[in-house]
Design goal:
Elements: E1 2-4, E2 18-21, H1 29-37, E3 45-51, H2 54-58, H3 70-79, E4 84-89, H4 92-95, H5 99-110, E5 115-119, E6 123-124, E7 130-131, H6 132-142, E8 145-149, E9 153-154, E10 157-158, H7 161-169, H8 173-180, E11 185-189, H9 196-199, E12 205-208, E13 218-226, E14 233-242, E15 253-258, E16 269-279, H10 287-306
Parallel strand pairs: 1-4, 2-3, 2-5, 3-4, 5-8
Antiparallel strand pairs: 6-7, 9-10, 11-16, 12-15, 13-14, 13-16, 14-15
Length: 308
Amino acid sequence: MQTFHHWRDPGPADKGASVALGNFDGVHRGHQRVIDLARRPDAPLGIICFEPHPREFFAPDAPPFRLMSAETRANRLARLGVEHLYQLPFGPDLSSLSADDFARDVLSQGLGVRHVVVGADFCFGKGRQGTASDLERLGRELGFEVTIAPLLAEGDRVFSSTAIRQAITDGRPRDAADMLGHWHRIDGEVLHGEKRGRELGYPTANMSITGLHPPRFGVYAVLVDVPDGPQQGQYHGVASIGVRPMFGENLPNLESHLFDFKGDLYGRHLSVALIAHLRDEMRFDSLEGLIIQMDADSAQARAILGAL
């Protein structure tokens, strides 16, 4: 997958894509429907999204809400066969464009799109003045086709990032996965920590969750993908998300213990899929009590993951 970071980046050979346009936070089943409608045999499959998310630009002090980092989103889109990722910088320049200017300067002249697919609730341009119907009209004037995808639902349930966030907040990763069409994942670099897990017999790969909508704190059964290097592969594991109440006040993070793993992961990038919430965070009277509980958590996680 080729990634472009500005609408002026693509050369003539990289234009003419059939694109899905939106934020695609979570790349859930509704998003996948939009992407599928952009697949055409006569054009590369592209995605137009924004970084940072427009909501982060307009409300920088709001609590973290993103289901995916840019890295996780790109990894998921690549798995779906996306060939061109146009990850446009959202800031004063882009946010000030009118709907007409966005269609002309960005979509037509900048990216040279052949076909654009958007959801029925899509809005664009300064003040969200443009609607999906407006884009349809502009596409006719500027020479690109527009398809409006209906919202995807099952019964009374509409697949939305809001509903997925609630499932993750509640500690229901399987319900989130049902709406996503894939396991909810946290991707990122393995950071140096205080190495307490190693002293307890449970070495962990520590990752930041800063900027992401926090899952329910506690212990999870997880699948951990090591994408490259000598230990490349997928591992079963158990992970803790939270502030580690046994050890004072700490920033929330993700600490994953990979079963039957040997090696150094510092500086590597991992992808951790949340499979089942086992319990909430707890404070123990002693380290011995913590270790006994960690043994029980590991046994439970092995049983759950072994049954997948």
